[in-house]
C-alpha cells in the first residue's frame, strides 16, 4: 500500500516533468520516453500491457519512441509463460525488434529462485536491473512518462 501511494505521488511529479523533459530533441525531432510496469500475475493484464506498448509505438512511430517494460513481482509470470507460448514469444520479439527494452528485477529473480537463462524467455544479463521499483522511480525522476495500465 505504501509503495502504491509513493508511486502515485511520483506519477504526479512525473506528469509535470513529462511535459518538459520526457521528450529529448534528437537530430531535429522529439524522442518520447515511456516506461511501462508489469507487476501482477494476470495473463490478461500482462497481454493488455503489451498491447498498450504496441499501440503507443503505432501511434508515435518506433523511431520517435524510447519504450521500456519493467517486469517485477508477479509480473515475472509473463516471461515464464512466454517460454512455452509461441504467441507471447512473437509479441515480445516484435516489440524488441521495434526497440522496446524489457527490464527484469533482480530481486524478483532471487525471491522466486529463478534462473533467467533457463526459467524466462529471452532475458539476458544486460536486461536485469537490481530493483524494478527503484528503476521505475529513477526513470520517473529522469522525466520519463510512467504507465501502469
Automatic annotation (TrEMBL):
Pfam families per the UniProt record, alphabetical: DsrE (PF02635)
Record keyword Signal present: yes
Residue stretches in coiled coil: none
Signal sequence, renumbered to the chain: 1-24
Keywords: Signal
Protein name: Uncharacterized protein
Biological source species: Halothiobacillus diazotrophicus
